[in-house]
Amino acid sequence: MKKLIYKVVFFLAISSVLFTACKKDFTNLNAASSAEVLSTREGMLRYSLALVQYYSTSNLGPLIITTGCTSREIKGISTLANVIDLEAGGKNLPTDNNNLVNLFSNSMRTMVAAENLINNAPVVLASDPATLSGVMANAKLYKAMAIGALATGFEKCPTQTDRNGKATFVERIAALQTAVALLDEAATTIATTAPSPEFVTKILGGSNFDLLNVINAYRARYNLMAGNYAAAKNAAALVSPTSKSIFVYSSTSSNPGWSSLGVSPPFRPRDYFGLPPAFYDASDARRNFYTTTPVFTSGPDILRTMTGFFTSQTSPIPVYLPDEMRLIKAEAILRGSGVGTTADALIEINAVRTQSSGDAFGVNANLSAYSGPVDVASLLLEVYRQRCAELYLQGLRLEDNRRFGRPSPSDNPTSTDERTRNFYPYPANERALNPNTPADPAI
User: Which pTM does this prediction carry?
Assistant: First the structure.
């Protein structure tokens, strides 16, 4: 029954609404219309479930794989043109590349589904405040996630969809501020009225997803990306280090990384997290958590076999990793004025480095304490190194690589470039139909 609901609701969630510049009609003659689903309590719950499933399968995948290839976490080894072009990157990356198109379009699909809930739930669920709380907070969380995915890949992005195909674009920092505002509202909503047990069980998956901790984790993440350092540190401090939230998969709703990194994959993980040789530590236990043998060679690159969170169709993926919060606090302290001291930052860094057990997901570095220079620049570089290892293939490396001022790529990147693009060009189909599409970045 759940499989049927997933399929039906997925089509409902994307039918008769605008996702990019054009309308995409996916008609299911045996199902109720989107308007009918969005006018009932049961429909709201089903639609909320569809939103969760769509993001976790179709939006998260391009964020992990597309940006992971661009930031050298993984290498494209397929002979498919879209994989070859994404791996090459550079100034000639085609604007119809399927990977970048999916990152943009699927994020917009998530956004429009979330907006449908946000716009309709207050009327439909007016007499059921506990269910309304869950639906609204969850929808705002996923809209924020979609904006965050767009801001990771693109210089400018929409923060509101447009049914006429003319969504406006804003600078990515402004978009991140919108994402933060949505998350702040979501946190206030569930603090005022706790989501109903039914919503927690049926939509969130019970103990598999701690909504408040997830909201606060993403508040910390997007505040950091937006440069709001005190707010990032404060939000990170609210997240329980033992909380564990996951996206759950099945044989019919597959782990989106597994199809790209699993059996006969188009991409393989680069050894030592894809870091330059001077940055990695051969004794880092996370290397063998995320990757394993057999080892392959591809040109000048050493590749390994994927493990970690992408070993099968049904492997769960963390919604966030707990130690991201420690590294957010360390970075916020180092970048912010009056947020903390270098000694405070070092405590957070060493908590990640020296952890040998106890991580909620088993991601333990088991390294010795940091022994380098204790100045802001040196510690920031150490935070970057730890983020690259701890948060491998979490969809964060491209943003991190830019934020930490790593060298910009050449027009035609070589194996020594740490990333192959700064930002992606906008999809050709969006430009063809939306006159508000900005000019493409040079690289």
Answer: 0.93
